[in-house]
Amino acid sequence: MSDLSDYRKIIHIDMDAFYASVEQRDNPEFVGKALIVGGLPEGRGGVVATASYEARRFGVRSAMPSKQALQLCPDAIFVKPRFDAYKEVSRQIREIFKRYTDLIEPLSLDEAYLDVTQDKQGIGSALTIAHAIKEAIRSELRLTASAGVSVNKFVAKIASDINKPDGMKFIGPSAIETFMEQLPVEKFYGVGKVTAAKMKAMGLFTGADLKQLSEAELLRNFGKTGSFYYQIVRGIDERPVTPSRPAKSLAAEDTFAYDLRTLEEMEAQLDTLALIVYGRLNKSKLQSCTVTLKVKYHDFKQITRNRSFLAPIDDLETITRVAKELLALNFEEGQRVRLLGISLSNFARETEQLRLF
Predict the structure, then answer these.
(1) Hey, where's the site called Substrate discrimination on this chain (predicted)?
(2) 249-353: what CATH class?
């Protein structure tokens, strides 16, 4: 059996209802109220960016149409996102992380992996460090975070979600394989709604079911991600925490449970996708010169259309508008669409842009 010193010490920190929590912190009148951050329900195609836990009790979730959220929670308070404020708080959180390690891999404004195998303060215990980070976020920023602690990224990320909000979960080496066997397939990396439905149709409901398939069978059924499933269900995830990952493109796409037939349906989905890809653009501190629309039809025919700009863009309104214009230019009555996607590319970092203007 391996010594504990052979394992990496990985922490996944995930802020609790981040945008909504910042709004409640900065606006005391919102404390304890059902708060929804996102597009306003009176506008067509508004989408929920995040919701306070008071709103979540009514079934409100991120990426849900704002009109649907209002139906579920009629007393909800809607506020528009303040991304500049969230980015500043995210920077402050990152400074807290840096007290313990420089191996920090942000996934978004509100979550990150930390490798504390060799921590700066010589504490040695990932659990102690996770507790200290949570307490610093609470006392200095008046916000709460949940933490997952394990020996690899995948398990640490899953663990951080178990005791939300303001939770902590440690899954040690001896417990990982049993934990993975019990994990529902929809919790696995890369498993969206469509893949989960395919797995369940094959009689695969948990990690234990996946474990019964050979790597060749997983590859045949799920492509290259099959190798990842084969490894992770056995507790193996060798992906390092990577502090810097230069992006070539940022994308968001969705395959729908039913074919979209009207331009209005498609535009509502583009609102959601634009919000997601805009959040990733903000997190990466990039500006994009190219917006690309991806459309896959019911017969699996696929097209991509793009528009490029001389000056980089980094605002939600332009991304959304361009995606909808590209869609309208290629829309024909009677077409049935099964997938839409938006991607941004040809990046320039914000610091580089200062030299252009």
Answers:
(1) 19
(2) alpha beta
- Cβ neighbours of residue 124 closer than 8 Å, sequence gap 6 or more: none
For residue 357, pLDDT beyond 50: no
Q: 231: closest CA among 252, 254, 204, 213?
A: 213
Q: Please provide the size of the chain in residues.
A: 357
Whether the CB-CB separation of 186 and 245 falls below 8 Å is answered with no
pLDDT tens for 151-186 read 999 999 999 999 999 999 999 999 998 999 999 998
Distance (Å, rounded) from C-alpha 64 to C-alpha 208?
32
Known active-site residue 111: yes
- Are the CB atoms for 263 and 336 separated by under 8 Å? no
Cite the residue boundaries of each domain of the chain with CATH code 3.30.70.270: 4-15+86-134+147-172
d(CA 291, CA 294): 10
Classify the C-alpha dihedral 136-127-229-198 as positive or negative: negative
| Domain 18-83 of CATH type 3.40.1170.60 | yes
- Would you tell me how many other CB atoms lie within 10 Å of the CB of residue 13? 26
pTM equals: 0.69
Contact, 77 vs 36, CB < 8 A? yes
- Is 14 annotated in some ligand binding site? yes
- Give pLDDT tens digits for 42-60: 765 577 889 999 999 999 9
Express each pLDDT in 98-130 by its tens digit. 999 999 998 878 999 999 999 999 999 999 999
Catalytic residue, chosen from 23, 105, 111, 267, is 111
Q: Where are the strands (E) in the chain, listed by range?
A: 10-15, 35-38, 48-51, 77-79, 104-108, 111-115, 145-150, 168-170, 249-260, 286-297, 302-313, 337-349
The β-bridge relationship of strands 35-38 and 77-79 is: parallel
Q: What is residue 335's DSSP assignment?
A: -
CA distance 285 to 279: 10
What's phi and psi for 321, nearest 5 deg? -60, -45
